[in-house]
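Researcher: Re-running this chain for the archive, since the previous output was lost when a drive failed. Same request as before.
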Amino acid sequence: MLIKTWAPRGRTPVVRHRYRRDRISVISGLSVSPVRHRVGLYYRFHRTNIDGLAVCDFLRHLLRHLRGHVTVIWDNASIHRGEPVREMCRRFARLHLVALPPYAPELNPDEGVWSLAKASLANGRPDDIAELDLHLDETLELIRRSPSKLRSCVHRTGLPLF
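Model: Regenerated structure tokens:
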């Protein structure tokens, strides 16, 4: 993602990078406590594409950290509908899954988190995957520690969570 920046008049800024196929895939989610309406951000990094098993790992992570019933509202991605996820729902009665309508990213509060993260990371040029990992982790931690930013991600969806 590129954003506007400053440069001397008449000189287009150039960000040089090495094209590599390294990747970091991230699965994340926002939580809203039902009584106190506290917001939280949970995420996990992966060095490969996220599949159904990684989704189950993330759901177990949520169940370890959140008490009571956990309702996950997410998009209709195929990795969210596979057999590993269905099996997990059968095993954990307190886990409830709700799919957003197709093609409705404006209803997903997690999209707001990624807008904030991308804006913070834009125009960066890490030298390697470890540096990108560090910058991404620092950026998500800053967002995670800001209840006002997390609340804004929820409010922008118009969903009645508060």
